[in-house]
Amino acid sequence: MPADDLDKTDRAILAALQNDGRMSNARLAETVGLSETPCARRLKRLENDGYIDRYRAVLSRGALGLGVVAFVLVRFAVHDRVVATRFEREVQAIPRILSCHNVSGSADYILQIVARDLDDYGTFMRDELRGLPGVTSVESALSLREVKAYGGLPLS
């Protein structure tokens, strides 16, 4: 179903679940102005149609002792599909790399990385990131303060 086929109620369900993925069906139905059975049917349809990718908990970096967030521009000297595929596979296996995007512009990839502190980040850069397939240079931008975290996708 194309996004244009989502009505106001579908969008309200998706918005409510982006704010609280553990919301009970009863509370969700009340929030969007439906009775429970039609709400459950709509929710199941939204899941089956792929609008809801998965449910997850958002963990606290602070509570887990991950005080450093870095955005890293990764560059390759040679653009070889085999090397890029190996790089992407290895990146997916490293938990401290939260996201990886293949981008246009001066870099080939942008990574979001977490670390306990600057020493931990430096060790990771030296021992792991710089040794990944294809990597010839990296440039880090350290987050000084998070202004907005993942707030969900726009539904308008």
Automatic annotation (TrEMBL):
SMART domains per UniProt: HTH_ASNC
Keywords on record: DNA-binding, Membrane, Transcription, Transcription regulation, Transmembrane, Transmembrane helix
Where is the HTH asnC-type domain positioned along the sequence? 6-67
* Membrane-spanning parts: 58-78
User: Which Gene3D superfamilies does UniProt cross-reference here?
Assistant: 3.30.70.920, Winged helix-like DNA-binding domain superfamily/Winged helix DNA-binding domain (1.10.10.10)
* InterPro entries named in the record: ArsR-like_HTH (IPR011991), AsnC-type_HTH_dom (IPR000485), Dimeric_a/b-barrel (IPR011008), Tscrpt_reg_AsnC-like (IPR019888), Tscrpt_reg_AsnC/Lrp_C (IPR019887), WH-like_DNA-bd_sf (IPR036388), WH_DNA-bd_sf (IPR036390)
Coiled-coil features, chain-numbered ranges: none
Which residues does UniProt assign to the signal peptide? none
One term under GO cellular component: cytosol
Q: Which GO terms describe its molecular function?
A: sequence-specific DNA binding
State any GO BP term from the record. Answer: regulation of DNA-templated transcription
Q: Establish whether keyword Transmembrane is in the entry.
A: yes
Q: Which Pfam families match?
A: AsnC_trans_reg, HTH_24
Which PANTHER family does the record match to this protein?
A: LEUCINE-RESPONSIVE REGULATORY PROTEIN, TRANSCRIPTIONAL REGULATORY PROTEIN
This chain belongs to the protein called AsnC family transcriptional regulator
Annotated source species: Paraburkholderia monticola
